[in-house]
Design brief:
heterodimer, A: about 240 residues, alpha/beta, seven-stranded mixed beta sheet, 7 helices, about 35% helix, B: about 750 residues, alpha+beta, three-stranded antiparallel beta sheet, 21 helices, about 55% helix, elongated
Chain lengths: ~240, ~750
């Protein structure tokens, strides 16, 4: 068990409510995410996991409640009170994202895909390409930078997506079923490499998964049921 | 195929309605334009057919027997007598009002004549005239001394069946046999030709065919682009159908059906739209006259054929695209990579240029000249160049995007250049319509620039002044008529001088002199500067002809007066205003002293020159150009929208990760701008080259100059349209890449 509980949370959600039409997806969720921890969010389909992740990441603005981001050395920021341009900037600079499907631009080479967030943040292209290549190398993709996504295996493409999410050194990495489309061997490989990098950098991870084996890599897991956090936090072994 | 499944596939979601509406709307516009253009082509042909009788030249009205004992000589001309089955007809070469050419035919016939003039019937009595309705309106709205006095008494209007269009200016006047025989230019006619083109059919058909290809091509491109709308979304739905057990063949059939249904709806709408717009389109003047609405009819069989071909072609293409995409239960199983374009793509373009160049070489080689060879080479060459631009575009676009990717510094530049480099064919397709339109515009602008260079003759001493009119004097005039004409002319507003030239006999006489005798005092009025210090001077008769380009000098004559000479020509100098020119024309035509009823000025001859054909076609072409540019703009908007819709998931995820909408806008703009600008310069250059090849192919004396300002307006309009088309899709970017939209994809 880690000692994350004793530090100030990097993300703090209080009383989150969100509905899609008549359907209540979140019903008063309270959740703290601590710096450097790997949090697995589990739950059945339709329980509100993705909505919770999107509210935490500033993708969605909750109908009620608040999400506060407390980056190291900076003043706390209430994400849910920001407009879309500022939330977009925050997502670009402080957060990284990995999805299950369709996240790589098919016409860009692996290294160009990874470099896009750096270019968006204003890094010069030669520097962006150098850092992207380094990161790909560390993820076991040395020599694959010039390949197109269509020329990579599922596991390799997912590692490129992980590299793209981590290349800006985000404070928090949001991963929505990051290995959902992979076989168990590839899943293990991707998770191991991803967690190795995030632990080394001290990056916080919020990871949605259905898979107990994936959740086992987390420091802590929470279960979402019917739009609420299940009975207490369950801490992994 | 199960109808329920088909219905679900075609209109299974709300977004499907938008796609279907897009396809139906685009096809409707395309089919409407196609039918109107087809109708226009038919209309031009019908118009020419109705006006064919004006090309009738008849047979000689005099016979010239061989001289006895001298096989190479000829005896005196004797008139061929008029019969009841013939009429004397004189074609006035240049009856002009302002800058419009009036087709005038003077007839003399026996009372018992059986000759029927198209649109009139029996020839008019001497002193009477029949006019087309447009000319009669013009006569009634203009002072008589500028126009009406030329023709006599109004007897009736010419029937529409003998008029090319409602704006045609045609007059048929009645004269006595003696009047027409005096000029020596009348011919005998018994019936009228129905061949509208005569000897110039080949170049006319060549230019017309090239124009038709140029205008139809962008329409076909538009139809092709709209039927591919939302192809990526369709692939996702087809993957779902494959997952639940549909075979690839079933999915292909569904793809065919879901494109065929909106295409059919759109095509039928297009037919209705064309019917509705026909009267409005007929109001557009083409080659100087509007069309009768009925001229634009294509017939139901043609409309049905267009509908059938468009629906069948779009369905087949959709089925083939789907089959080639390799859609499996888990989505597209094989990445549809475009074949990398290579330099081989330049072959059709080079072949087209070679074909047109060969045509020109053939034109300039007298022993090889043949319309059977020149026409296919010119038309085929033009078609190949048009196709060649579309074929070579992706290769050039790829070359430029590779260069651009190396230099790219921003995320938008990297993403746009990468996409173009990987999909140059798709990227270029979106701007191909505009590129083709610019090419077409450049061809027509180049071709019509020769008009600009020939229609403003300079004022040169020693040549007939552009603002003066002349007429040869009839041998049978009376001195009183002559002095009356001169006196009357000098009194008229805008006429500055009336100069009479003399000779030993009338210019039409066998004893006519090759020189015209003038009083030296009259010479300055004709624009001469170096005037010999004698009473009488002469100048070569070629001074009167518009094709004379070398100034003629005056020669002194050692005579004190013009005794024994007869007036042979009268030249009226005007202030150059259209009213004065028309007053002068009317005066000369109605004076009774001129051998030919018409008078010409160097400016009028421009109206009759062969370049008029090109000018007329240029007007038609500019019309086509605006249609082409409008279609191209529409195509670009559709293609850009399609490019956004096809990538909505991935672009949405980019936004989710923090990419601002402004970056997405820059990506879309670059994706349109790079291929457009890459091939635009090529299009402009090729357009002018082809124009030069075309006009010199028709007549190697033509010279091209800078295009008219309309051209630059059209180019600017094209770029504005491109900008408008791209910015119109910006709202689509925001809506379709919204995070909420992506979440539930």
């Amino acid at each position: 068990m880690s000692n994350h509980d004793t530090t100030a949370p990097i993300l703090s959600a209080r009383g989150l409510h969100h509905s899609f039409g008549q359907t209540e997806a979140l019903r008063g969720v309270d959740l703290d995410v601590h710096p450097g921890e790997v949090l697995a969010v589990m739950g059945p389909s339709g329980s509100g996991k993705s909505t919770l992740l999107h509210c935490l990441a500033g993708v969605l603005v909750p109908d009620g409640g608040s999400v506060t981001h407390c980056p190291a050395g900076r003043a706390p920021l209430e994400i849910s009170a920001l407009g879309e341009p500022k939330r977009a900037r925050l997502r670009l600079t402080d957060f990284g994202f990995v999805f299950q499907f369709g996240q790589l631009l098919p016409e860009l080479t692996a290294v160009d895909n990874v470099s896009i967030p750096l270019l968006l943040a204003g890094t010069r292209r030669p520097e962006a390409l150098r850092r992207s290549t380094d990161l790909l190398d560390r993820l076991g993709l040395d020599g694959m930078g010039a390949k197109l996504p269509g020329e990579l295996s599922g596991g390799q493409a997912q590692r490129v997506a992980v590299a793209r999410a981590l290349v800006t050194s985000p404070a928090v990495l949001f991963a929505d079923e990051p290995t959902g489309s992979l076989d168990s061997l590839a899943s293990e490989n991707v998770l191991t490499l991803m967690l190795e990098l995030v632990r080394e950098a001290g990056t916080t991870v919020v990871m949605i998964t259905h898979d107990a084996r994936t959740a086992a890599y987390a420091d802590r897991e929470v279960i979402v049921r019917d739009g609420a956090i299940g009975a207490g936090y369950r801490v992994s072994a | 195929m199960n109808p329920g499944l088909l219905k679900l596939a075609v209109v299974g979601s709300r977004s499907a309605y938008g796609r279907l509406a897009g396809i139906a709307g685009g096809v409707a516009v395309g089919v409407c334009l196609l039918l109107l253009l087809w109708g226009g082509a038919n209309g031009l042909s019908a118009r020419d057919d109705r006006g064919a009788w004006l090309r009738e030249t008849g047979s000689p009205s005099v016979s010239v027997p061989r001289a006895a004992g001298d096989p190479s000589g000829s005896g005196p001309a004797t008139p061929v007598p008029l019969g009841s089955d013939t009429a004397l007809m004189e074609t006035n070469p240049a009856e002009v009002f302002r800058d419009q050419l009036i087709s005038r035919r003077d007839f003399a016939a026996l009372a018992s004549t059986t000759v029927k003039i198209p649109g009139i019937g029996t020839p008019p009595e001497p002193g009477q005239y029949y006019a087309s309705p447009a000319l009669q309106r013009l006569i009634e709205s203009t002072p008589r001394d500028e126009l009406g006095d030329r023709f006599g008494t109004f007897a009736g209007t010419i029937d529409d069946a003998a008029l090319p269009g409602p704006d045609s200016l045609i007059v048929v006047t009645g004269a006595t046999e003696a009047e027409l025989r005096q000029s020596g230019g009348a011919a005998l006619v018994s019936d009228f030709t129905t061949n509208p083109y005569g000897g110039s059919a080949a170049p006319y058909n060549t230019v017309l065919s090239i124009g038709a290809i140029a205008v139809f091509f962008p329409v076909l491109l538009l139809i092709s682009i709209v039927t591919g709308l939302g192809a990526a979304q369709s692939r996702e739905r087809f993957a779902t159908l494959r997952l639940i057990g549909a075979s690839p063949q079933v999915v292909s059939r569904i793809a065919a059906a879901e494109t065929a249904v909106p295409s059919l709806i759109g095509a039928v709408l297009g037919v209705g739209l064309a019917l509705l717009l026909r009267p409005a389109v007929a109001q557009i003047p083409v080659n100087g006259t509007r069309m009768f609405a009925a001229d634009l009819t294509t017939g139901w069989a043609a409309a049905a054929a267009v509908v059938a071909v468009v629906v069948a072609a779009s369905a087949l293409v959709a089925a083939r695209r789907t089959a080639r995409a390799g859609i499996g239960p888990l989505g597209v199983t094989r990445a549809v990579h475009e074949k990398t374009p290579t330099m081989w793509r330049s072959v059709p373009l080079l072949a087209g240029l070679a074909s047109m160049t060969t045509a020109i070489a053939v034109t300039r080689t007298p022993h090889l000249r043949s319309p059977l060879l020149e026409m296919p080479l010119l038309i085929g060459g033009f078609a190949l160049i048009l196709v060649g631009i579309v074929v070579v575009g992706p290769w050039l676009t790829r070359l430029v995007s590779r260069l651009g990717l190396r230099q790219a510094r921003s995320a938008a530049a990297v993403i746009a250049a990468s996409r173009i480099q990987r999909n140059p064919v798709a990227a270029f397709r979106s701007v191909s319509g505009l590129v083709v339109a610019v090419f077409v515009v450049s061809v027509f602008a180049g071709a019509s620039s020769i008009i600009e260079s020939t229609e403003a003759p300079p004022t040169t001493p020693g040549l007939l002044q552009p603002t003066s009119l002349h007429a040869t004097v009839d041998a049978g005039h009376t001195p009183a008529q002559m002095s009356e004409a001169v006196r009357h002319a000098k009194e008229m507003r805008g006429i500055r001088s009336a100069t009479v030239g003399y000779g030993p006999a009338a210019l039409s006489d066998r004893d006519a002199s090759p020189e015209i005798y003038l009083r030296a005092a009259d010479a300055p009025a004709l624009g001469f500067q170096d005037i010999p210090a004698t009473e009488i001077v002469t100048v070569d008769t070629s001074f009167l002809y518009f094709w004379t380009t070398q100034p003629r000098a005056l020669t002194p004559v050692p005579a004190a007066n013009l005794d024994g000479m007869v007036p042979v020509v009268i030249v009226l100098g005007t202030d150059g205003t259209p009213e004065a020119m028309d007053r002068a024309r009317t005066l000369l035509n109605s004076s009774g002293v001129t051998a030919h009823p018409a008078t010409t000025s160097p400016m009028d001859t421009g109206l009759q020159s062969p370049t008029r054909l090109i000018q007329g076609l240029a007007v038609l072409s500019y019309l086509g150009m605006f249609v082409a540019i409008a279609i191209a703009g529409l195509s670009l908007a559709v293609a850009t929208a399609s490019a956004v819709l096809d990538r909505k998931r991935v672009l949405g995820l980019m936004r989710l990760m923090g990419m601002p909408v402004s970056v997405l806008r820059r990506i879309i703009t670059r994706e349109a701008a790079v291929p457009l600008l890459t091939v635009l310069l090529l299009s402009v250059g090729l357009g002018f080259l082809v124009a030069w090849l075309m006009v010199t192919g028709i007549n190697d004396t033509y010279r091209m100059t800078w295009p008219a300002p309309d051209y630059f307006t059209a180019l600017g309009l094209s770029l504005l349209l491109a900008l408008g088309a791209v910015t119109a899709t910006f709202s689509l970017i925001r809506a379709n890449t919204a995070i909420a939209a992506t979440r539930f994809e």
